[in-house]
Amino acid sequence: MTLTVICSLNYTIYLQHFFPYLPQPLSSNLPEFVYIPLKTRQKKGDSHWTNCHVALHEWNISWEASQLRHEIFEDKLPAQLKWIRKFEDANIYLLPDTTPKYEAYLPLYHLLPQRTLQNFNLPLLKRGIWPPAGFSHLELLLFQPNFESQLSEAFAHHVWPLLVSGSKIKAFTKDDPIVLLSHSLNYWLSYAYCVAEERLRLFPRVECENDEQKKQLYKIRREMPTDVKVNRPLKGGCIWTGEDDAWEATKQIAEVADKHGKLREIIEAVKANRVEDDFSDYWSYVACPPKRSPVLMLDWN
User: Fold this and answer.
1) How far apart are CA 38 and CA 102, in angstroms?
2) CB-CB contact of 186 with 219 (8 Å)
3) CA–CA separation, 117 vs 124, rounded Å?
4) pTM of the model
5) What is the CB neighbour count within 10 angstroms for residue 134?
6) What's the pLDDT tens digit per position in 251-270?
7) How big, in percent rounded to 5, are the helix, strand and coil portions of the chain?
8) Gap between the Cα atoms of 169 and 124, Å rounded
9) β-bridge pairing 31-36 and 91-96
């Protein structure tokens, strides 16, 4: 059965059941990622498997706390994740190290329109659930062993018009620096998470359920340092949905990459130092720019 594809990334967590209040730093650091091996559960009641999955899930859904998550989970992390305390200033996401890495690259995957997915033989999925929780076992069965290579090619073709307008990606060799950059899933992933976070921060917040919660929230806020805010969790909803919205999100990702990853500076530096060997045999305006018509100078004397 073929599913109707929708470029959709959803945030559907009822976070108030896990964290009634969440601290947020006034300035969040850029997302960084650590891959966590999630072995198959060996037997019913496997505490190692359960503890890892629960910790990964709860850590990621508290994304709004950013680098302050270390304080929330100070005594809650299982022994195999205690090492994360060494990186207290980092805004870390814990990504499931599965084969293939669908959940890790989920935001990039669900930016791609139906035509692009079909062109690169990728399955059509209705929506993605963000942030990753390590439970997408069914989806993993739909992908081929070369999933990362397929996704890299597909995303490069998707984002290319924002990098080099007027020339198709096949006009350049595979070793061209901008081609390599367009294929780098790890380069784009951090900025995709930034855009997901930015869009979610526009969502309304869950209201206090009673006066007692209001009093508790007021008390916590008074005890916090000036560079930390405390709020009720955000409500869920669609981070982006539909091909038009997904393309707008892609453009936002390129803007964030320009702001934090010097994307335009990299592109301009590459353009300024191009040589003939950077181009393939496919004609393009970049490789063969139209010549200017000579200017006719008239001497009126």
Assistant:
1) 14
2) no
3) 7
4) 0.85
5) 20
6) 999 999 999 999 999 999 88
7) 45, 10, 40
8) 24
9) parallel
Q: Which residue has the tokens 């590459």?
A: 270
Rounded distance between C-alpha atoms, residue 253 and residue 196, angstroms: 9
Query: What residue segments make up the domains of the chain, in order of their start?
Result: 8-20+105-278
Extract the tokens encoding 199.
């869009």
**Are 72 and 134 in contact, with CB atoms under 8 Å apart?**
no
Q: Which two tokens stand for residue 46?
A: 């496997």
Altogether, the residues listed in the chain come to a count of 301
Give the whole-angstrom CA distance, residue 173 versus residue 179: 8
Q: Which two tokens stand for residue 286?
A: 């970049």
Tokens of 9: 């990334």
C-alpha distances (whole Å) from 75 to each of 60, 70, 85, 90, 283 are 16, 9, 10, 18, 60
β-pairing verdict for 91-96 and 228-231: unpaired
State the first-to-last Cα distance of the chain, in angstroms, to the nearest integer.
Answer: 81
Tens-digit pLDDT profile for residues 151-191: 999 999 999 999 998 888 988 888 889 999 999 999 999 99
